[in-house]
Amino acid sequence: MTRLTTGVLLSSFLALFAFASGSRDLIGDVLRLPSEAAGFFRRGTAPEDNDAVGTRWAVLIAGSNGYWNYRHQADICHAYQLLKKNGLRDENIVVFMYDDIAYNEENPRPGVIINSPHGDDVYKGVPKDYTGEDVTVDNFFAAILGNKTAIKGGSGKVVDSGPDDHIFIFYSDHGGPGVLGMPTYPYLYANDLIEVLKRKHAAGTYKSLVFYLEACESGSIFEGLLSEGLNIYATTASNAEESSWGTYCPGEYPSPPQEYETCLGDLYSVSWMEDSDIHNLRTESLHQQYELVKKRTANDNSFYGSHVMQYGDIGLSENNLFLYIGTNPANDNYTFVDENSLRPATKAVNQRDADLVHFWHKFPFTVPNFLPSTFSFPSHLPQFRKAPEGSPRKIKAQKEFVEAMSHRMHLDDSVKLVGKLLFGIEKAPEVLNAIRPTGLPLVDDWDCLKNLVRTFETHCGSLSQYGMKYMRSFANICNAGIGKEQMAEASAQACINFPRNWWSSLQNGFSA
């Protein structure tokens, strides 16, 4: 009886497996590929098997260019390598990056990009979907929406997702209240991004979406804007009113190799990726990673850190990371420990000062005559010489630094003066620096904000990456009821002229 029962069960199993295996030779397959039989009953557990979870899609975007912004493209390249090891296919990963770093004349290792002091090359094999002038807001939005006809240039690859699919978006760049940078212009406004995400949801072309955002004031992109019910979970490197931080920068410990004069990564970005590099992502949840990244990015509540935030459908954070970014089979035996063994560097660099860090490490600093006597260079920058005196490299670096500082001082003075002209000397600081209560978006009328920024730039030159910090001031001016005509009059009085250099060029404006 026992033999008969066993025989029936075995016959049933073989018949079932033969049905699943199609026309393949059954006995040969069972003997030759026993793991495949087990896989049939554990469908969805292999990184390359997307059937049980739908297809995993990813959009990776570095929103800057210039060698001083090395870290943003390094972040994105690292993310690509992570996703590839975790089983995602190239056809499901859309990469946006200007691609001017790997073979930049200043890169000490041509053709190589690293994201940590002792890291491997993360550039090799990265798809060149959208590079150079094809890295635009419109192409980014079209890729998310799966709208191939709206794409201009590039590979044409888009997120052609379906209702059972899961989408992961990682954006690394400069930012400001309500805006994110792009290497081309115009920049990206928060309300436009949220509208695109809502359209994606309305189309029914994903099951859930996770958005990781590295930028200054990145919380303002979702604060009061990303509502629940869209099946979107977002985390940001900082809250709505603080900077995010570069890491692995010259002068830090650990610092980049001596030949590097720029930050290799961003604190929030390397935190989530270095965590993902070593953990079994089948068992680690989004929430567990959020807690670890939040602790590391806060840098033990020191000055060199920011507050990682979460928005949207927080309940999605109970999902395992595997659902969105796969997992590396090499980490299958890793037991998750609710303690961060990855410690941050001793110091980090404010994102808005990272360009100055780069210029400084090319030549020893001497305060130019046009700077006020009270000016002091960031204290974390060591004073040593890299470029020989009188060399073309040093002359170029000095010119870039002077132009950058001239642009910064012009913007600082111009925005303050516009505020005084509009609201009076005493009230201006109160209006320009006001912060709305938590839960409210940056501005009530986004069209007003865009118009005021465009008007200011017409008279005063580009805000550029540094000027993003003043977006809250322009939003407050809108919220106070100031219109385009009043802004035009005040800007014309405040800016009789502006520095004629790359940083201030109107071609680099938010609204170009």
- Summed over residues and divided by their number, the pLDDT gives a mean of 83
Number of domains: 2
Shape: globular
For the record, the CATH class of the largest domain is Alpha Beta
| CATH architecture group name of the largest domain | 3-Layer(aba) Sandwich
DSSP, total strands: 12
H/E series: HHHEHEHEEEEHEEEEHHEHEHHHHHHH
Pfam families: Legum_prodom, Peptidase_C13
GO molecular function: cysteine-type endopeptidase activity
InterPro entries: AE, Legum_prodom, Legumain_prodom_sf, Peptidase_C13
GO biological process, one term: proteolysis involved in protein catabolic process
What does this structure look like?
By secondary structure, this protein is an alpha/beta fold. The protein folds into two domains: about 55-330, 3-Layer(aba) Sandwich (Rossmann fold), CATH 3.40.50; about 390-510, Topoisomerase I, Chain A, domain 4, CATH 1.10.132. It contains 16 helices and twelve strands. The protein has helices at about 1-20, 25-30, 35-40, 70-85, 135-145, 190-200, 265-280, 285-300, 320-325, 355-360, 390-425, 430, 445-460, 465, 470-480, 485-495, and strands spanning about 55-60, 95, 165-170, 175, 180, 190, 210-215, 230-235, 245, 265, 310, 350. The strands form three sheets. A six-stranded mixed sheet has the order 2-1-3-7-8-11, sandwiched between helices. It has a three-stranded antiparallel sheet with strand order 4-5-6. The protein has a three-stranded antiparallel sheet with strand order 10-9-12. Helix 4 runs parallel beside helix 7 (about 265-280) and helix 13 (about 445-460) crosses helix 15. The longest helix is centred in the last third of the chain and has 32 residues, at about 390-425.
